[in-house]
Structure prediction request, 98 residues.
Amino acid sequence: MVYKVPGKHVRPHGTYDFAGVNNAEELDAKLKEGWFSSLPEAIEPKKVKVVVEATKEDDIAPPTRQELEEKATELGIKFDGRFSDKKISQLIEETLAK
Prediction:
């Protein structure tokens, strides 16, 4: 069984829905669609970091601004919004080369 909120069934303080699954593949598919394996989880989902599987395109795509800023912060590089992506990338490369 898997559960989600809201739904067509009444519970104290809200509604919920449920569905049956027959195998692990169906369970994985439902969980990816936003269903939960228990009603308490569906009612109060924990903060879960979303994991996205990398694709081949991700390997060859240039880093996003967010990725550049995260890496620069991790390396202790000072920057602000006026810095271009290219400039931040150069500072990261220089820092890693040291």
Notes: The radius of gyration is 22 Å. Helices lie at 24-32, 39-43, 56-60, 65-74, 85-97. The mean pLDDT is 87.
